[in-house]
Amino acid sequence: MKTGFSLGILSCRDVLEHGLRFKIRVCMMVCNKNENRGPFARRSLLMRFVIIGGDAAGMSAASRARRSDPDMDITVLEKTNDVSYSACGMPYNIADTEKPMDVLVVRQAQVFREKQKINLLTGHDVTAIDPASRRVSGVNDSGQSFTMDYDKLLIAVGAAPIMPDVPGADAPGVLALKSLADGRAIKQWLETRDVRQAVIVGMGYIGLEMAEALRSRDIGVTMIKPRPVFLPWMEPELAQVVQQEVETHDVTLHCGTVLDRIVSEDDRLAAVCDKVTVAGDMILSAIGVTPNSRMAAEAGLVLGPHNAIAVDHQMRTSDENIYAAGDCADAVHMVTGQKVWVPLALRANRAGWAVADHVCGRPVDLPGITGTAVFRAFDLQVARTGLNVKEAGQAGFDPAKVVITSRSRAHAHAGSTPIKVQLVGDKASGRLLGAQIVGKEGVAHRINAAAAALCAGMTVERFAQCDLAYAPPFGPVWDPLLTAANQLLKQL
Question: Which end of the chain is more exposed for a tag (fewer CB within 10 A), N or C?
């Protein structure tokens, strides 16, 4: 092979142990010999791994790649100044008037730079990807343009909050909660203004967690949403328990209410809807999030459900040199085998690891997700995994369901509270398809047993025979999950 320069002699040990790890790109010196690409021009023969995004997936990938290959050229480009933080803890931090938002930072940027020798560049906003040239470009927070070459690229840019598409949505005091900067903005707004009333647009996980956070600060909360059902994905009997809990804590709910516009006057805001006008000192958009996939689409990468970046089981996109992980990427649902987009923290971290392993020459196949999630609504724990009845039918199953009410502890043990469980199974195969649980205790960890059963592809009959732990302080002899499974067996 003629390259224009000599590679020297590589030992068999080098080839076998490292598989070259993509470290040598023969054409690199020839291609770059006469090019001036600024301060980021390639200067070595080491494989260059570039990561766009410095939160869960991005920093997990960078850290694991560094552990696997101490010599790899790893660069992370993060548009903000925040990396590696616990976004899920923001509502609870907002409830706490004493703790600053920055306590949620898991690892400071400087630690990645100094301890792990990762070239972490904050304030660098990547705006374009050129797959043909294997190059990214963007602008830093000083307004300077930059370009950077890559051998392997990871897109880990997460998701963005959906803001109301109505007049006045850009008014001061109309806020969202997705990034650490969003959390700081909300906390600053609460600390610098006399906020007595808040309006939350949306009734999903974040909306309900923020309702609790604001009520803990003695702020009145009104929630509005256009759809008529409170939690449409949840079994109605369980959703009713959650709704009663929220309303018991003096949160006003307006389901089936469409926001028309937002009016700002004299430091006061008003959500003008088709049925009611709700005044407040702040409006929080909790409609949901959407994957940050525009840049990937412009680069010609294939998109999947909800316009998330389509990836395979090794997190590769439609370009073999580009990976995607975290809230911007899709996944395979382990129950249906179909592509889905469900942004989950564990998936983001796990996917980051998988990308790093693949880049370092140790391919890992991720089987997928079951959509396991849990959140708190005041004194209630609310959890789900797998499919509900509607989703099961849409996926081609013949679903049967059961809802049971049991106790969180043995019946004679002090502190026992009601716990409701819904299980969904397939009549044709007997397979367990999904679970939902609501109660004041024992919910968050019980849902994990159902999630594990789904990952294992268990039938309801097999799940009913699982050897679950028993002691009076933690549950009855027949765990609520086992009781539900035995009842569901009668319908299959």
Answer: N
- H helix intervals, 72-127: 90-95, 109-114
Q: Select from 400, 438, 94, 378 the least CA-distant residue to 236.
A: 438
Taking alpha carbons only, the member of 329, 325, 375, 371 closest to residue 350 is: 325
d(CA 68, CA 62): 10
Report which residue type is found at 365.
D
Which amino acid, one-letter code, is at 24?
I
Query: What are the catalytic residues?
Result: 88
With b meaning 16 or more CB within 10 Å and e meaning fewer, what string describes 145-184? ebbbbbbbbbbbbbbbbbebebebeeeebbbbbbbbebbb
pLDDT less than 70: residues of the chain: 1-45
Neighbours of 373 (CB within 10 A): 16
Q: Give the CA distances from residue 492 to residues 34, 318, 393, in Å, rounded to whole numbers and listed in that order.
A: 71, 41, 15
Give the whole-angstrom CA distance, residue 328 versus residue 323.
11
**d(Cα 33, Cα 251) in Å, to the nearest integer?**
65
Strand partners, 22: none
Q: Which long-range contacts (CB under 8 A, 24 or more apart) does 242-246 make?
A: 242/208, 242/377, 242/380, 242/382, 242/438, 245/377, 245/378, 245/379, 245/380, 246/208, 246/211, 246/377, 246/378
Contact 489, 461 (CB under 8 A): yes
Strand ranges for 41-188 from DSSP E: 48-52, 73-78, 119-122, 124-130, 135-140, 145-149, 152-155, 159-161, 174-176
H or E segment and range at residue 173: none
pLDDT, residue 97, reads: 93
| Cα–Cα distance for residue pair 203/232, rounded to 1 Å | 10
Please list, in sequence order, all residues whose beta carbon lies within 8 angstroms of the beta carbon of residue 445, skipping any fewer than 6 positions away. Answer: none
**pTM for the whole structure:** 0.89
Cα distances (Å, whole numbers) of residue 297 to 53, 159, 330:
17, 14, 14
Close Cβ partners of 290 (under 8 Å, ≥ 6 residues apart) = 159, 160, 162, 306, 307
Interval 345-399: pLDDT, tens: 999 999 999 999 999 999 899 999 999 999 999 999 999 999 999 999 999 999 9
State how far the Cα of 218 lies from the Cα of 195, in Å rounded to an integer.
Answer: 9
What's the token pair of residue 392?
A: 């099961």
Q: For residue 171, give the H/E element and its range.
A: none
Could you report the per-residue pLDDT of 159-188, keeping only the tens digit for each? Answer: 999 999 999 999 999 999 999 999 999 999
Tokens coding 167: 């007049």
Rg, C-alpha atoms of the chain: 25
